[in-house]
Amino acid sequence: MKISEIIMKKRDGGVLTKEEIQFFIDGIVSGSIADYQASALLMAIYIRGMNEEETSNLTMSMRDSGDVIDLSPIKGIKVDKHSTGGVGDKTTFIIAPIVAACKVPVAKMSGRGLGFTGGTVDKMESIPGFRTSLEKEEFINQVNEIGISVIGQTGHIAPADKILYALRDVTATVDNFSLISGSIMSKKLAAGSDKIVLDVKCGDGAFMEDEERAKALGTMMCKIGEAAGKHTVAVITDMNQPLGYNVGNSLEIIEAIDVLKGKGPKDITELAISLSAIMLKLGEMVDSVEEGRMMATEAITSGKALAKVKEFIAAQGGNPDVVDDYSLFPEPQASIEVTAKNDGYISQIHCKCIGLASQSTGAGREKKEDALDLSAGIKLAKKLGDSVKKGDLLATIYGDKSKIEVAAKQVEDAFEISDEKVEIPKLIKEIIGL
Ligand code: URA
Predict the structure, then answer these.
(1) 136 pLDDT more than 90
(2) Using CB atoms within 10 A as the burial measure, which of 76, 137, 242, 284 is most buried?
(3) Is 274 one of the annotated active-site residues of the chain?
(4) Active site residue 187
């Protein structure tokens, strides 16, 4: 087989066989296929698409490109959760302690930021001392002892995804149905949980802007999960404005802690409770999602989830005092305010632009090797539908002096103000596979 012939076949709209897909995945992992050839095939796939069978074969080859973790030494039903990527999406850091406090074990591997979207691993690293890389034994022991561990994806889990993820990020081939499906499901199937909850984002700040495409992606990923013997549920959720008010690593962890204290923003609290409830149902801790919602809410009001997050931070080497004292997080060098140009109602907050602005502050990477400013980011003061008067604060931008002016301009451009109040998009649009 020759990679150039496989590229040509897909370029011309052909359907790739299981063997051809396997050859491609083997070749990128062994290094016998060059980055430029892999990029050419990614672009051909992006433009021509893949059918369901190709997508499923791609996912399985990617899963088997590395270790498939055995989590059976952990007692109980392990339920994993993965978001397709959003702006201000700090749900993992809220859900994981809630679900663990309700006695469903959380043994989770998370990712770093991708493009304009943030990643849980980067966010957790803003906690002084927090380790996101644990040996497998330590990871499993921690879950057995305190019910929770969240770490970065090891190099041995779906290494094909690691290579393709980095190439897609810089070749404009991220937002493709089959490539997203393969990327997410290969990792989830390799990470060893028994059941999977997928938060499929749709809207201006998601890789799938269109609701129908997001539903098709969710349906496809559920099919792949079920075919591999893992009950998979996809929740289609809105990403037309950032979740909560804070975007940026330490800012998001602070807001997540606020949610666990019962004083977080309404949208992110609602999403976290809904996703936790589904996880509790899949973990067979409750009989219905409604019962799960009550249990998740009680974990917050009773303080159990907050106690669990402190335990979790301490177990991974972080300073748990950050929960009570936010000044222990890294301090940004400077800040700048963006204010409203006229009176009216907030009719748009272009979510992708906020994500890009956050990247400009240094909270996200422009290049793979960039170091992050973990204190940088954006704190919104207004959300969709809020009324404003000229001169009111819209957002505060934090970070290095040399970066925040550019970011402030991007944030200013992201806001639209109209005379009429707009309808707020529904947060949870559909649940597939429950
Ligand atoms: N998250 C992933 O892990 N992969 C993608 O392709 C998109 C979001």
Answers:
(1) no
(2) 242
(3) no
(4) yes
Known catalytic residue at 335: no
Dihedrals φ, ψ of 232, to 5°? -125, 130
Query: Which pLDDT value is given to residue 310?
Result: 98
325 classed as catalytic:
no
C-alpha–C-alpha distance, residues 409 and 72, integer Å: 51
- pLDDT of 238 higher than 80: yes
Residue 183: active-site member = yes
Question: How do strand 148-152 and strand 106-110 relate by DSSP bridges?
Answer: parallel
Catalytic residue among 63, 112, 168, 350: 168
184 lines ligand 1 (CB under 6 A): yes
Which of 61, 110, 126, 183 is an active site residue?
183
The alpha carbon of 179 and the centre of ligand 1 are apart by a number of angstroms equal to: 8
Band of the pLDDT at 245, cuts 50, 70, 90?
very high
The protein residue with its alpha carbon nearest to ligand 1, atom 2, reads 184
pLDDT score recorded for residue 170: 84
Average pLDDT, the chain: 95
* pLDDT on residue 156: 87
- Answer whether 84 contacts ligand 1 (Cβ < 6 A): yes
End-to-end Cα distance, the chain = 42
**CA–CA gap between residue 238 and residue 181 (Å, rounded):** 19
Which pLDDT tens digit goes with each residue over 103-121?
A: 999 999 998 887 788 899 9
Q: 336 C-alpha to center of ligand 1: Å? A: 32
Tell me the pLDDT tens digit for each residue of 62-72: 999 999 999 99
Query: Per residue in 385-403, pLDDT tens?
Result: 999 999 999 999 999 999 9
Residue nearest to atom 6 of ligand 1 (CA): 180
68-72, 183-187, 364-368, range with the lowest pLDDT: 364-368
